[in-house]
Amino acid sequence: MISASHDELIAAAQAVVYPHRVGDRLFGNVGAALVTEGGNLYRGVCIDTGSGTGFCAEHAAIAAMVTAREYRIARIVAVWRGDDGTWYVLPPCGRCREFIRQVDWGNIDTEVVLGRARSAALRELLPAHEWPDPLD
């Protein structure tokens, strides 16, 4: 899977999107897929809960990866389908960007898929990611 195209990785994320409403909360309306440096595919969905206890789809996919004792992400993507059926690739939020980096320092070079023909290294999306220099 590591040599999969952006479209194949996007399709893997789309395959897990099955929105489910619980009260005023929506689970599974964003899907994520990642490929590790070892070539393995992991997927996850978002869970929207009250009081900030939920998590993004990227977190779920990364948790599945870590459960399998892998830590280096080669590529990652998240998708969402609008009410009209149109699919969108979502860039990771700031919390997800930092989470990706903290799982393994090498993930600063993870390729983040931003569209069918567009991607960026995590380091480009996470400015000022180096540990700061001492003041004096």
UniProtKB/TrEMBL annotation:
Domain CMP/dCMP-type deaminase: 4-125
Domain of life per record: Bacteria
InterPro entries per UniProt: APOBEC/CMP_deaminase_Zn-bd (IPR016192), CMP_dCMP_dom (IPR002125), Cyt/Deoxycyt_deaminase (IPR050202), Cytidine_deaminase-like (IPR016193)
Identification of the protein by name: CMP/dCMP-type deaminase domain-containing protein
Keywords noted in UniProt: Hydrolase, Metal-binding, Zinc
Taxonomic lineage: Bacteria, Bacillati, Actinomycetota, Actinomycetes, Catenulisporales
CDD domains, alphabetized: cytidine_deaminase
Protein family per UniProt: Belongs to the cytidine and deoxycytidylate deaminase family.
Naturally occurring in which organism (per UniProt): Catenulispora pinistramenti
A Pfam family it matches: dCMP_cyt_deam_1
